[in-house]
Amino acid sequence: MSLRSESAPPLATLVDAFARSPSPMVITDARAPDNPIAWANDAFLQVTGYTADEIVGRNCRMLQGPATDRFTVERIRSAVQAAEPISVELLNYRKDGTTFWNAMTITPVNDAEGLAFFYAAQADMTYVHQMEVSMRGTNDELERLVNARTQDLTTALEQKTALLHEVDHRVKNNLQVISSLMLLKARRTPEGEARDALQGMAERIGALSTAHRMLYSEGDCTHFNLGDFAAEFLADMNAGLDPERRRVEADVESIAVAAAMAAPLALMIHELTANALRHAFPGEREGRVSIVARRTERGIHMTIRDDGVGVAAAAPNPAGFGRNLVEMVVRQMRGTIAWADAGPGTTVDIDIPLQQPA
Amino acid sequence: MGTGNAAALRILVVEDEALIALELECLLDDLGHVTVGVAGNATEAIAMGRSTAPDVALVDIHLVDGPTGIDVARALSADRRTTVVFMTANAKRIPADFAGAIGVIAKPYSERVVASTLDYVADRRAGRHGPACPDGFSPAPV
């Protein structure tokens, strides 16, 4: 070894310090055939389980075994051959066959005549490797937990969707039953006021049914399209009219409104239209009812107009249920309504605010 | 209601809800069609299909014995003489191939849609060329 530092302690002190160091150290003789071990400290003997007699004179490859990485061994061999320093980690075998991870730094040492020794300082890295393994285990465990949780959430969502479908199915089926019940009773009731009332109710339920059918048929169950509803409603209304004498027309923009407004809007449109058909055209008078709806800055503006006899001229209607119903529903939606005699006919203007932009 | 010029169809009603079935029967009668039977479960429906060979079967999906309307549609449509139309509030249950049915009327239905769908079916059966599909009736994918 060549210790050139001027302030270096005496050689004997250094050798003693190396010998008693807790870090395993070994020195090989670069000039002897096959680069054999010349010296090893106690820490090295303790880590490997060999006595000094058993290793001195032998090459360090005696510490390698079947699971030692061949590529790393090759790197060490090249470095030694080129007399270059190298730091590697290698799986080594103790005398008893057990393994340990050996992190070593191999340094060539020259004397006056050139390369003389290799000095290798080592550290047992087994616990670091164990930590890596256990960390990998922890990660796997975390991943497993996340997967399990995701699975739970997916199942919960599926159950919720199934429940929504089930409720939707029941609501629709019940509406059908109620409608059938009304119509059955109407069929068995003699012509007159009672029968008209029952048929009127069946019609209102029909309008609510149309709204419900549209509500869940698309993927989005939180919105309701007023334009789609109007088209369907119009077809149902006109199917019951003599096309030669009376028509209902609609010009309704495609406006998305919150699902909660579907039923009141459906009822309102039905009531105003049915009212006009019932009262504006007494006897055989021909006529037209038009429904127009536009999106405004604040909400919806709707106009329902007929070319009939007008409110003042219509037969007095003490019950006025239809009109009461409309005013109630408009109030529920925080809207305003104005009835006007348009001469000819009646015009009803309604403004309904919408909370969210559609 | 109805156009009045549609040929009278012989119709099997497969519906477990008695009120709906009864009202539907009245409606079919008003429209000039003939109800050949009403069945509330799959076994009954398939047996009635065999014995009456109806022109049209209106089939609900949820019957007394579960969502067996699909099987009923498959069995009834196997007979070329019968045209099957689903009539259900649960259209999401219908398989991609529609189990042999030509389409679905969504519940709650309006009388208008039942009438126009039956006119459409009558036209199809009579081989009249390309009758327009009525709105409110969703045809099976071709």
Automatic annotation (TrEMBL), chain B:
Top-level taxon of the source organism: Bacteria
Q: Which UniProt keywords apply?
A: Phosphoprotein, Transcription, Transcription regulation
Residue span, Response regulatory domain:
10-122
Q: Does the keyword Metal-binding apply?
A: no
Tell me if rRNA processing is a UniProt keyword of this record.
no
Q: Which SMART domains does this entry report, sorted A to Z? A: REC
| Signal sequence bounds | none
Name the Pfam families for this protein.
Answer: Response_reg
Name of protein: CheY-like chemotaxis protein
